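Protein modeling request. Please complete all fields; requests missing the sequence field cannot be processed.
Requester role: graduate student
Desired output: 3D structure, token encoding
Chains: 1
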Amino acid sequence: GTYRLEVTRTGFTGEVVDGVRVVGGSTSELDFRLSALPVALDEIRVTASASLLREEPAAAVALDRKQISELPHFGDDLYRAVAVLPGVSGGDISARFSVRGGLYDETLVTYDGQEVMEPFHLKDFQGVFSILDPEMVGGVELTPGGFTANYGDRMTGVLDMVTRTPTEVRFGVGVSLTTAWANAAGVFAGGKGTWLASARRGYLDFILNAVGDDDDDPPDPKYWDAFGKLAYAPSASHSFSLTMLAADDSIEWEDDDEDEIVDINSGYGSSYLWLSHQGILGASSFVDTSLYLGEITVERDFFIFEEDDENISLDDVRENRFYGIRQEWQHDLGDRHYLRWGFDIRSYEVSYHYDLNAEIEDPIDDPRFYPAIRIDSFHDTYEGRQYGFFATDRIRLGKRLTAEVGVRYDKQTLVEDDQISPRLNLLYNVSSRGALRFGWGYFYQSQRPYELRVQFGETEFLPVQRAEQVVLGYETDLGTGMRLKVDAYARTVTDPHTRWETIFDPWHPVPEVATDLSEIAPEEVNARGIEVYLADRASGKIDWWVSYAYTSIEDEISGVDTPRFLNQPHALTASLTWRPGPKWSLTGVFNYHTGWPTTAVSARPVQDPDGSWRLSYDVGPFYQEYLDDYFRLDFRASRTSKVGRRGRLTFFIDVQNLTDRENVRGI
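Delivered output (667 residues):
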């Protein structure tokens, strides 16, 4: 049959080969060369001799560098490549995605172990691009539920990314429809050290000015991001790294018409710096420590004036500074126990300077919507700390069964609350090719100091949310290079946070002044679903996979089960990659799902006592109807050829929505 072969040795790079063919009566030979690890000890897991203890009990879906580069992704954006994974859904405008019906901020995002809190550019438009350069990423792993106790304070999923490990000096430049970039990587000190550097600059401002109407002054968005990593291993047992990630974007737009004056200036910045140490202590212990700090800033300065009714002014300045220490220990106690424990202590200082004076044109006469005249002012500073501690034991209970039992303790000083999260994961090897997975646990999520929604009039922090999750999955190798994975899950949030939504226009750039702004206050949230994933990556020329998901995500509001705006009962994604030769790669991705939930609305003209006319809206129950079904076909073709002795040139064409389908998101 066809097998996946993995060769590992502690202190050396691993090697994995898919599609190894074994034919009866003959011998297949494979040669491996494992290099000593100068750095990247984060790739090593200290493991017991029993193979069951080497496998993570929580199921995850992974993408490597090659798969990321071949998938269609507009703007060369990593997040848009991730959005095609099973259990993930997203819109066409924003790069943000939802995992199993959860809100985008319910997914923990880590980069070499460091949490990235605001990973998006152009936040005025719900985050059009991510700030992460795919050229710097070595692999992506998404755990959509049932994750273990070492992850905390997010309750739906974990997106874990690791940087690439360079083996030689390389320099690169590139350009796409929206972004230009330059990057470099290399080694030093005889292979004991490595370095990575990347800088990207988006030029949507140039494109909008080039294609815009001469009589219309378009917005002027500018954004850039930079990444750098320096790593050094003085010995085979210890590695140190210093990593930096920074991003900045701004939008300027001035429009002076006869009846309207618009002056918009907004800016967003984020920066992260972390120092890490990975060490192998003795023959059975591994420690990973990080010291980190960062800053996230928001500046929004809007002024809109109309001669008739609309008169909006806004000043919004926020600063979030944080620092902390994180440490994790792993210890192998033989072939039956594998211990992990650790902590994460974080301190915040956040300031808010928010002012708004708005009179909304053509308000909706319905008590469910925010009133037309809004005068808000809020100025305050908060300091708080978060403490997280966890311990797990991965136990071999027999030849086929492995359990990971864990508990997590979290405390937030800002709301003076603490939580204990028990978690249980089971892995049962049904056969040499198939395994059952089960996960259960409590998953808590706090409202952090920088998440206070002052733009909607909130001045007090909300209590911590709790979700109970149950996950049951089965995966198997079908023996011909194909792999089947089936998951069923149930998630109940018993004390969800109130949230604010623009009911008809989900991508409104300034939601606090939108006519259709409404407060959604569920008493409970229930998510249920089944996912089926079938993949064939055995052939070197053709890779394909297909996934189907049934999802039900409902908010219980005043005793009525209301579909969440992200709900898509049926979703189908299929990907096919063909490599006709060593230089070419052709990939198509087909995406289908049930239309998004919508709200019925009608309007009729009403004459006021002064003789003027206006529209009176009749709005039905929220999200009880569905828009037309959605489908999209994306395509990427790339060709890589050698240039000189050491150079390489890659040319790609990426087409989004190849069939020119009109997909409605909001009305």
